Amino acid sequence: MKMANPLRGEVLTLYKNLLYFGREYPKGADYFKRRLKAAFLKNKDVKDPEKIRQLIARGEFVIKELEALYFLRKYRAMKQRYHLEDDKTK
């Protein structure tokens, strides 16, 4: 019987979180999903727990970058929307 890797749950959670954040990716959700799947498949044979932790940390960094990207995009849209309205009131 094969022993399950204790980090497997963390990896699955990371994958699901990244899939969720990829829904609004600028190049499209399908593009993001394909790239995500390829990245995870590329590392599917990694067995070293320390290397797996490094990959998880990298994935969590990507989530933070996506959050920042989406926040900035919303901020720019709001700024543009309200800036245009400010110009009209003058």
From TrEMBL:
Residue span(s) of domain Complex 1 LYR protein: 10-63
Any Pfam family the entry gives: Complex1_LYR
Superkingdom classification of source: Eukaryota
GO cellular component, as recorded: mitochondrion
Entries under InterPro entries matching the protein: Complex1_LYR_dom, Complex1_LYR_ETFRF1_LYRM5, ETFRF1
GO biological process: negative regulation of oxidative phosphorylation; respiratory electron transport chain
PANTHER family registered for this protein in UniProt: ELECTRON TRANSFER FLAVOPROTEIN REGULATORY FACTOR 1 (PTHR21024:SF0), GROWTH HORMONE-INDUCIBLE SOLUBLE PROTEIN-RELATED (PTHR21024)
Family: Belongs to the complex I LYR family.
Protein name: Electron transfer flavoprotein regulatory factor 1
